[in-house]
Write a structure and sequence with these properties.
It is a single chain. It is built from 4 helices and no strands. It has about 80 residues and is mostly helical. The chain is elongated and about 75 Å long.
């Protein structure tokens, strides 16, 4: 019975804090646009943020480069 006297006030404080945090989030617009960030990641409008050096594309596809790396790791004479 003594533990109930301790847990009830702790529970009330935690519930009050949860309600206050939720109301703060709603007032500050945290729940205004739930689908926007999910759709925004699909747009390719960040080309201006990429430096010129990083935009240079190699002439070989990535899978060809991976095959060359795998071939160079093989040692002759081993099966």
């Amino acid at each position: 019975m003594e533990i109930v006297m301790l847990l009830v006030p702790i529970m009330l404080v935690l519930v009050t804090m949860g309600i206050l945090l939720f109301s703060w989030a709603v007032k500050n617009g945290q729940y205004d646009d739930l689908e926007g960030p999910a759709h925004r990641i699909l747009y390719d409008d960040d080309n201006d943020l990429i430096p010129e050096e990083a935009r240079i594309v190699t002439s070989e596809p990535a899978d060809t480069q991976a095959n060359k790396q795998d071939d160079s790791e093989d040692t002759p004479g081993r099966s």
